[in-house]
Amino acid sequence: MRRRPHLIPWKAAGQLSERQTSGDDVVRTTGWVFNNETGDALDLEQFVATGDSEVPAYLTVFGLRSPDTDQQSLVEIGCGIGRMTCGFTREFGAVTACDLDAGFLERCHETVSRFGKVDRLRTSLVADGHTLDLAPNTSDVTFSYITLQHCDPGDALELTAEAVRVTKPGGKVALNYRSRSRLDVLLLPLGGLMRAIFGIPTFGPWLAQHRWAARLGWQANRLAPDEIIGPLTPLLTDIEIWRNPKSKIKGRGAEVKTFEGINRHHYWLVATVR
Ligand SMILES: C[S@@+](CC[C@H](N)C(=O)[O-])C[C@H]1O[C@@H](n2cnc3c(N)ncnc32)[C@H](O)[C@@H]1O
């Protein structure tokens, strides 16, 4: 069985979120794992508002909207406590929110009950961190934001293939990854060291609840577009790599497109499933 130190910070934050009495407290204690914001004045409403501004922007820029979006289905991989899921349920008729932590999924359901359309939501546990418990060819759009960069490289590739598997022919995937930067010379070894420490019983999960430690431990992979697209080429068409105009990243056989709203260290694979 694979060792799973990559999952520890998320499970630690998920357990912490389960112990909180309100969604506002969850945002104050674990919200930083989703949008990097901290502070006693934070609340769930502001947290969801950050997702509400991102969801329409990405749907529009990546061409994921159509006249019948409210009849369509979307799968979100790595939903957390529902920061973007609320926005998705206002757009799509059926949303499946997937995450590796059951506590986050419960909180996601609560968040969408307050700020989204909960009758359109179902949740799905990614128990092993790399398999979606969903039928093939069922989703119109499969989306993932700031999740695949935190996975073990093998898990990130398997989840990418899973995204394609669950998407209907003619449907779209929009998947976000982190690109290489000069800081990686330090960040990647420190991340590996931190994940090794996370594996120490009791101490590791305690340490993983701390922001600085979790942020280092997340530095998990820097997959290049070619590594991702390569094995999937026969299954995809209209392959696009979206990036910030200042980034230089590109992928073989992919059309490069730019959008100012994309983090300089991120890129997106947007493609149609054959
Ligand atoms: C940085 S958060 C982003 C959440 C959400 N996409 C957002 O933008 O607010 C990453 C989420 O991915 C989940 N996650 C990390 N690794 C995962 C994996 N291998 N499978 C499924 N979910 C995963 C974490 O539990 C966490 O909720």
Structure summarized in a few sentences:
By secondary structure, the protein is of the alpha/beta class. It has helices spanning 8-18, 23-30, 32-35, 44-61, 85-91, 102-115, 153-166, 184-198, 203-207, 211-217, 225-229, and strands spanning 73-77, 94-99, 121-125, 139-144, 167-178, 236-243, 255-258, 266-273. The protein is built from eleven helices and eight strands.
What labels describe this entry?
binds S-adenosylmethionine, alpha/beta, Rossmann fold, 274 residues, 8 strands, single chain
Structural class: alpha/beta
Number of helices: 11
Bound molecules: S-adenosylmethionine
**Looking at CATH, which topology would you report?**
Rossmann fold
Q: How many discrete structural domains?
A: 1
What overall form do the CA principal axes indicate? globular
State the separation between the terminal residues, measured CA to CA.
33 Å
Q: For the record, what is the CATH homologous superfamily label? A: Vaccinia Virus protein VP39
Q: Give the neighbour order of strands across the main sheet.
A: 3-2-1-4-5-8-6-7
Order of helices and strands: HHHHEHEHEEHEHHHHEEE
Mean pLDDT: 95
- Total number of beta strands: 8
Low-confidence stretches: none
Mind summarizing the main beta sheet? Answer: 8 strands, mixed
- Share in β-strands: 15-25%
**Any idea what the CATH architecture is?**
3-Layer(aba) Sandwich
Helix content: 25-40%
Q: Rounded to an integer, what's the Rg over CA atoms?
A: 18 Å
The top-level CATH class is: Alpha Beta
